[in-house]
Amino acid sequence: MRDVLRLVGERMTVANVGWALFAVGLAALYLAFGLGGLPSDIAIALTVAGVLLLVAGPVTYMVARSLARRSPGNLHRLRDKPLRQRYEIGQELGRGMNAVTFAARDLQDEEKAICIKLLLTPGDDARITRDSYRRHQERFAQEMKSLQELQACKCPFIVEAYDFCHDHILPFFTMRLCGKSLERHLKESPRPLALEDMLGVLKDVLQGLAVMHAHGDGIIHRDLKPANILYDTDHWVVSDLGMSLLEGARSRITWDQSLPGTIPYTAPEVMYLRAENVTRAADMFSLGITIKQMFTGSTDWEASIMDSADVKTADSYIQDAAEAFDGLVRKMTALHPANRTICDVWELANEISNLVRELNSKRGGREQLPAFDASFRKLLARPAK
Predict the structure, then answer these.
(1) How far apart are the first and last CA of the chain?
(2) Which terminal CB of the chain, N or C, has fewer other CB atoms within 10 Å?
């Protein structure tokens, strides 16, 4: 019963509750005084009913809001018996705008290292209003939908998800527990990141994005950043599809009181254009800023990679590589998407393949950089329309 009241409270708005009762009260008073010829007892009854409804509307709304605020959130429900019978919940791993992730153990398959991600409610975080909660529900549902569709592709470069619970009271899903993020790796590594490591990251991320962009009408990540690129055993995976959207799809999710995505990685059109006008080029913008960060540690859009003190003090070979990548980044991060000459993963893969060949020709006695292998080039072949 408490959950029902909570949901009613969260869905109540002045428009569909308070104003409705208020309008019925006004209608009753109009019938009592605006229509002549009514028997006195009926007129009195309508007057009393109208006054009561005028009072009951706001009171009912305020009580429902109070129940919604005081009700336990989804974090409290982690202790519910059905959930505890299936999962053992561990420490909190991370918390975002609308969801929280915990390490967990699947009691039915204890060999799997998993984590569980669940939606936060107004009862979990006072900053979440009932209106923003409805938008968060849509985002979370879209994330689960995108992940479920992508699991059929069995792509090792997209985080693997297992169980999905679409229950309206406690929506959650479980996924593979990966290692550290690229964000943490960059903080722990010297700058610029070794070219071999950088190419390894790009190779894996491009393959993950290629599957997303080629799936159906195309799934756009919209929030690609080092924190959402995770290391899994021996390769990198793309994770956190909370802002993902089908290319060309109309959505109310983008329009929020806060800007979607993460500045400075998010492309300008994601923040300022309607969702149906956002294309794959948005993910290229985010990846371009990430490449710049791997070289310089900076996410400054205007700064050149060549302006970095770390690059200036590196040897000539690293400076040649930085200059080549600086050109790529500029092609990927033009503010207007129409001005980006690299606007999808297939174009970027070809550019990087050519860049690697050129760098290898200059390495002299150095060990050659790993070229993208045939399986990678085959996967990145542009899909037929």
Answers:
(1) 51
(2) C
